[in-house]
Design a protein that fits this description.
With 652 residues, the protein is mainly alpha-helical. It has two domains: 2-86 and 128-248 and 286-393 and 495-625, Growth Hormone, Chain: A (Up-down Bundle); 97-127 and 398-491, no CATH class. It has helices at residues 2-17, 19-26, 30-55, 60-79, 81-84, 112-115, 119-127, 135-149, 152-163, 169-180, 182-194, 222-236, 251-261, 266-273, 278-297, 300-321, 323-331, 335-363, 368-387, 471-475, 494-516, 518-526, 534-562, 584-617, 622-625, 634-637, and strands at 437-439, 444-445, 455-457, 466-468, 485-487, 565-570, 576-582. It has a five-stranded antiparallel sheet with strand order 2-1-5-4-3, with no helix packed on it. Strands 6-7 form a two-stranded antiparallel sheet. Helix 16 packs parallel to helix 23 and helix 16 runs antiparallel to helix 24. The longest helix has 34 residues, at 584-617. Keywords: Cell membrane, Disulfide bond, Ion transport, Membrane, Transmembrane, Transmembrane helix, Transport. This is Solute carrier organic anion transporter family member.
Length: 652
């Protein structure tokens, strides 16, 4: 079970940590990449409720095994577009078929047509424009992964909870999630390694590539990680086909199960014996399904819990989907570095928190109300730590014409057009070009031409190309001998680097507080529904939070993030592509503000949930009212209705 959960977590991490590179490879926006990421939840929606309800009546281990195979096939399908697309062109000026790959500089005598991409290259690029729709295969692969993952969580969790000893389910669940965190660790490390490799590694001469992993156009070998994930998922499916449908049940619980079964009336037994046709059985099953759904939807505690977790999950999924983009844009770190630090520091901390959370619930023998208070406390501390991220937002990058004027003194308030300056007005530069260079004055220019550079050198090593006699560097008042610039954006200042390390430290603490309460999320659900409805309740709960949280959150997070873009790439056909750079201050305020607002609303629902549970259980034996237990009191067995639902004092 842990191997399967590990592979599931591995696949989820790979998609989110590779999302920025997928945007660049397919030249799509963040909102569209959010749809791709939401494809996993879309796949879940197709089958999750029926798998949760009817799956518990079938051979659960085999269903989990089949799901793992489908999940692996989805991972392999996600990687396939790489093998059918042409070579990655990180610039419209780049022509992989050409013998020389030069960068336009400022020349007063040249015309604008010489600085733009030749028409024959544009025409060739438009002929291959259909390749940009290969992202649909990535979406389909992610949807297939979602379908395959469907039986793993609800059936796996109910399989463990149903046959665990009384009081041990929280420990087993916490341990399961803790061990499964190996998946994200492996995923982060895989992406960290593959992100350093150029996307077309093995197919192109890497000595001709003039961009580095810190460049906003860099695309790593994202497809390799999905191949590895797919093969591991298929491998994890093998043991499930050899597990029994029902493990050995302790004798005491077996007797209780038998005594519960004998409560059926003669009329019920007569009806059961006379179910002759498959159609009649299907009708009765559907009737039972609708009755069970009604029982869940009329459970006001479950509805409050559903709203709470929807808000919390939306915040988490939106934050996690774009955390790598946030780190890259806010602190100037490469995807490889961001994945390595999160994988080696944050994820192990979360694993410890998950295990410790389950242990605390068992050790303190918390009631259902106590579990709610414990979860509220951890979520409150997590929110306070999350708000502290505001103090760690860096200032905007110094980019001439986008965030500041070319003299380096005043900030630019409008980013509609790239404002030219007298220092490059005679250069006839293509304003849509994105070939960032860093000046000796610490200012980034969009291209050597827009920096007013007249000459260059160092073509033997494309990464070390330097441009000289740059009039815009001289115009900024910076004193230099050559007024030169070199390829690549200027690095962040020391203050921003210091904020990054503080951010990682706070991220560890915040992740620990969030994870320590994660086990209580599951326990609150299972303790507030009837035992026979746990699988259905978990399935319906997963459906709602995936539909309204897992699908929608990445889309509206991505759409708002797109609003902060100040420089878009231009595709081969002249259309808008992916974002090259953002207003980092506005990006941080929107990214953190939206997530913290959702978390705050979740805390309000926590208060409502605790109040509702206190009102329901006040003056009663809370332990006896928890429906997650395995052993049902004999007095309560007598209150079973004909359809098997608890009534009177045990009905919720």
């Amino acid at each position: 079970m842990t191997f399967s959960f590990t592979c599931k977590a591995l696949g989820g991490v790979l998609m989110k940590s590779s999302l920025t590179q997928i945007e660049r490879r397919f030249e799509i926006s963040s909102s569209l990449s959010g749809i791709i990421d939401g494809g996993f939840e879309i796949g879940n929606l197709f089958v999750i409720v029926f798998v949760s309800y009817f799956g518990s009546k079938l051979h659960r281990p085999k269903l989990i095994g089949i799901g793992s195979v489908i999940m692996g096939a989805g991972g392999i399908l996600t990687a396939l577009p790489h093998f059918f697309m042409g070579y990655y062109r990180y610039s419209t000026e780049t022509n992989n078929d050409a013998e020389e790959d030069s960068i336009a500089t400022c020349s007063v005598n040249q015309t604008l047509s010489f600085t733009r991409t030749p028409p024959e290259i544009v025409e060739k690029g438009c002929e291959r424009a259909s390749e940009s729709y290969y992202w649909i295969y990535v979406l389909m692969g992610n949807m297939l992964r979602g379908i395959g993952e469907t039986p793993i969580v609800p059936l796996g969790m109910s399989y463990i909870d149903d046959f665990a000893k009384e009081g041990n389910s929280s420990v087993y669940i916490g341990t399961l999630h803790a061990i499964a965190m190996i998946g994200p660790i492996i995923g982060f490390l895989l992406v960290s390694v593959f992100a350093k490799m150029y996307v077309d590694i093995g197919f192109v001469d890497l000595s001709t590539i003039r961009i580095t992993p810190t460049d906003s156009r860099w695309v790593g070998a994202w497809w390799l990680s999905f191949l590895v994930s797919g093969l591991l998922s298929i491998l994890s499916s093998i043991p499930f086909f050899f597990l029994p449908k029902n493990p050995n049940i302790p004798q005491k619980e077996r007797k209780i199960s038998i005594s519960s079964h004998t409560l059926k009336t003669n009329k019920e037994n007569h009806q059961t014996d006379n179910l002759a046709s498959h159609g009649q059985r299907g009708t009765i099953q559907m009737s039972g399904f609708l009755t069970s759904m009604k029982s869940i939807l009329t459970n006001h505690i479950f509805i409050i819990y559903l709203c709470l977790t929807l808000l919390h999950f939306s915040s988490f999924i939106g934050t996690f989907t774009y955390i790598f983009k946030y780190i890259e844009q806010q602190y100037g770190q490469s995807a490889s570095e961001a994945n390595f630090l999160l994988g080696m520091i944050t994820v192990p901390t979360m694993a410890i928190g998950m295990f410790l959370g389950g242990y605390i619930i068992k050790k303190l023998k918390l009631t259902v109300i106590g579990i709610g208070k414990f979860s509220f406390l951890t979520s409150s501390v997590s929110l306070l730590l999350y708000v502290s991220y505001y103090a760690l937002i860096c200032e905007n990058k110094s980019i001439a014409g986008l965030t500041m004027t070319y003299d380096g003194v005043n900030q630019v308030t409008s980013h509609i057009d790239v404002p030219l300056s007298y220092c490059n007005s005679d250069c006839n530069c293509d304003k849509s070009q994105w070939e960032p260079v860093c000046g000796d004055n610490g200012i980034t220019y969009l291209s050597p031409c827009l920096a007013g550079c007249k000459s260059s050198g160092g073509y033997q090593n494309p990464n070390n190309t330097v441009f000289y006699n740059c009039s815009c560097v001289e115009a900024s008042g910076f004193q230099s001998r050559n007024y030169s610039v070199h390829l690549g954006e200027c690095p962040r200042d020391d203050d921003c680097k210091r904020k990054y390390y503080i951010y990682i430290a706070v991220q560890v603490l915040q992740s620990f507080c969030t994870s320590i309460g994660s086990s209580s999320f599951i326990m609150l659900l299972m303790k507030n529904v009837q035992p026979e409805l746990k699988s259905l309740a978990m399935g319906f709960h997963a459906l709602i939070i995936r539909a309204l949280g897992g699908i929608l959150a990445p889309i509206y997070f991505g759409a708002l993030i797109d609003k902060t873009c100040i420089k878009w790439s231009v595709t081969n056909c002249g259309a808008r592509g992916t974002c090259r750079t953002y207003n980092s201050t506005l990006f941080g305020n929107i990214y953190l503000g939206l997530s913290s607002s959702l978390r705050f609303l979740a805390l309000i629902f926590y208060v409502i949930l605790i109040y509702a549970m206190k009102k329901k259980y006040e003056g009663k034996d809370t332990k006896a009212m928890e429906n997650g237990g395995k052993v049902t009191d004999e007095a309560k067995l007598e209150s079973l209705s004909n359809n098997g639902h608890l009534v009177n004092e045990t009905r919720i």
